[in-house]
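Review form for a predicted model. The reviewer records the input and the model, then writes brief findings.
Reviewer: anonymous (R2)
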Amino acid sequence: MKFRVLSSLRSFSRSTSFTLAGGVAFLLVMAGTSFFVQKVFAQVPAPRFREATVLVPRGSIYYKVMGKGQPIILVHGGPGLDHRYMFQAFQDLAKDYRVIFYDQRGTGASQCKLSDRSVTIEQFVEDLDAVRRHLGLRRINLLGHSWGGLLAVHYTVRHPQNVRSLMLANSSGLTGESQKAFFENLDSMRTPEDKEELENLKGKSDQESLQRHNELYMRPYFYDSSKIALLSYEPSKLTAENNERVRTLIWRQLLDYDLRPQASRLHIPTLVIHSDRDVIPLEVAEETAETIPRSELVVMQDVGHYSFIEDPTEFFKEIRKFLKTVHGP
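Model under review:
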């Protein structure tokens, strides 16, 4: 395992936009809480992409493709979110790569009749492979964020022959114990005052209360709380309706698992990129990088769980550097 800690000296361009056009309501869902915040954003140019759906057992999976070159499939976090919170930030990679966004079943524009049988990690893995096969891709680069990183590992141990490289950004860990560490760390990062105020805000639906709830809830996920507003996200109607159910069904499967034996047998170039102020403890990323051969751990300084939002310049520099070692200039 290679290990690098990045300098905390960095620049951030205010011209970088992660907002969506129009008056929107966006849903933030992490570790069991969901809420809406409404805000009006400036118009941004509509990106060019092609989109389609692929039929899968008990549903269909929506995807969109941007750019040309080596294929990168992005695996969004949650569970219960959709690709939209990553869409603005990751468009930059489409300048040099073929970037594929998709929605996990039951969210975004991916239809699914939710049940214990249809919403499983195994089915999520096969949904991802259905997108790969539908696009006629032999080998792919996988980039997963948060829960999406864990799903990407599940896919890779199941279909290693299909994966050219693996990138785990602020990823969940390889064991059920890592999930417990996440929840304990999240709780410890909230002050008693914030916990009390969050409790008092439950059930309130006025604009001021919703915005305050958003700020308080997301504080542990950001080192610089002034950048919470950059996580501007418009969920689909399906995500808003299904996020809690999807999250519950998946979390039940994450209480007791251990991917370390399978992950230790992988021989695929792997980048583990984490943050020193992430709500997922750094020790979780260190264990992942120590377990997976041919892995490199990069630790970004003074950023939280959404490293690609708090410091996009450094984040995408590391992603591009890694991809160049895999595919060449």
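Findings: The domain at 2-327 is CATH 3.40.50.1820 (Rossmann fold).
Further findings: The CA atoms of residues 243 and 259 lie 25 Å apart.
Recommendation: see findings above.
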